[in-house]
Structure formats: structure tokens, C-alpha cells
Amino acid sequence: MTTRRNQEAIWLAKIQWEKQFWHKGWIVAGVDEVGRGPLAGPVVAAAVILDPHKEIVGIDDSKKLSVLQRQQLYKEICRNAIAIGVGAVGPRTIERINILEASRMAMARALGHLTIRPRVVLTDAMRVGGPWDELPIVHGDQVSASIGAASVIAKVVRDRYMEELALQFPVYGFEQHKGYPTLYHRARILEHGPSMAHRRSFLRKMMSSVQELVDFPL
């Protein structure tokens, strides 16, 4: 059972990166993206400026959290953060500039949508660029509260978008797998062909055999 003392210790460990800048009076943003691996849908990024005086228990890499935990943290982050920005890049642009540059673009857009400009940006081991200092942190979404919060916001926003996309393209089951290459998703692509929401360049790379690809044009 997690005690209040344990929660406080975990929080203090999670803000070790932020504290060195908060002590200087600097505004710190964490930024992260989700959706690099799916066969469909956008890559979505979020930027979050946490309030140094408001503890948010449970922030972590969104992949380590349950759906319920993410939903609860999403509400708490939205309620307590100083500022939040979200950016997305769609399938056609992903195909045109590649997923790494699309991820960078989504993060830049998220930072650009903040209502307050940060002095320093913490990233999950990636350079974004912009009018601020940057600190890339390995496994940043696990060890930094700001990056972890951005991971949670981005994941919830993207999942909700994919659930809406499922209403537009019901045959693919986007509400189940959120566009990731599950066996069910791959089977639906083979049966129905790709939709406008699919990243066709990813289909070439990620479908398991050449024979699978002859059933629909890419």
C-alpha cells in the first residue's frame, strides 16, 4: 500500500529535473509524443507546464498506465497544469517527411500552442528546436513528471481521436487497437484494403509478407 510519505518521495524523484530550473525561476515544459508505431492515424504530441506547487500523484509513462489511470490523470493534469498544448501530424505528412520528422513537427506544434513560452523544454531523448533551452532525457517519460504528464495527455487525446475515427471507418476496429498493427487490424486491412486514415508507407514496411500486399494497391 502506497503511503503519503511514499507518494511524496516518488513525486520528488519525478521532479528532480524540473527542480533545478524551478529554483532559478524558469518556466519548464515537458513534451512527448505518441503514435509512432501505428499503421493508421496521426502522431500526437503534448506539451505541459506543471505548477511547481501542485503535486500530481501517479504520473508515469502512459504505456505503463491503465486506461482508467490515464483518464484520471488526464483530468488532474488538465485541472492543475499551468498550460497545455497539443499538436498532431496526419498520415499524408508522415508519409512525406517520415515518422521521426513528423514526431518532431507534432511536438513543435504542441509547444507552439502553449499560452506561456517556456524557458526550458524537457524532451524524451529528442531535439525539437525552438526559442528555448532543451534538455533531452533518456526514458524521460518515466523519470520526469513534466514529460510523463505530456505523455498522458498525448495518449488520451490520440486514443479519443482514434475512437472517433472508428465511427468513420467502422470495419477496421480502430476503437480496439488505436491503429496499431494487431493481427485483427492486419486482417481487416487485407479484407477491406487501406483507408484514408492509413499510413500506406507503413503498410509496405510492416505487413509480414509480399503476398499480403498484392491484395490491395498501395
Give the helices and strands, then pairings.
Layout: H1 4-14, H2 16-22, E1 28-34, E2 43-49, H3 67-80, E3 83-89, H4 91-97, H5 99-112, E4 120-123, E5 133-136, H6 140-143, H7 145-168, H8 174-177, H9 183-192, H10 200-206, H11 210-213
Parallel strand pairs: 1-4, 4-5
Antiparallel strand pairs: 1-2, 2-3
Characterization of this structure:
With 218 residues, the chain is α/β, with parallel strands linked by helices. It has a single domain (4-164), classed as 2-Layer Sandwich (Nucleotidyltransferase, domain 5). 49% of the residues lie in helices and 13% in strands. It has helices spanning 4-14, 16-22, 67-80, 91-97, 99-112, 140-143, 145-168, 174-177, 183-192, 200-206, 210-213; strands at 28-34, 43-49, 83-89, 120-123, 133-136. A five-stranded mixed β-sheet has the order 3-2-1-4-5. A hairpin with an 8-residue loop joins strand 1 (28-34) and strand 2 (43-49). The longest helix is centred in the C-terminal third of the chain and has 24 residues, at 145-168. The chain is globular and about 55 Å long. The termini are far apart. Residues 209-218 have low confidence and may be disordered.
Main sheet characteristics:
5 strands, mixed
- Please identify which CATH superfamily we are dealing with: Ribonuclease H-like superfamily/Ribonuclease H
Shape verdict: globular
Q: State the order of secondary-structure elements, H for helix, E for strand.
A: HHEEHEHHEEHHHHHH
Q: Calculate the terminal CA-CA distance, rounded to whole Å.
A: 52 Å
The number of distinct structural domains comes to: 1
Determine the fraction of residues in helical runs and give it as a percent range. 40-55%
Count of DSSP H/I helices: 11
Provide the residue-averaged pLDDT: 92
| DSSP, total strands | 5
Named at the architecture level, the CATH assignment is: 2-Layer Sandwich
What CATH first level would be assigned? Answer: Alpha Beta
Q: What is Rg?
A: 19 Å
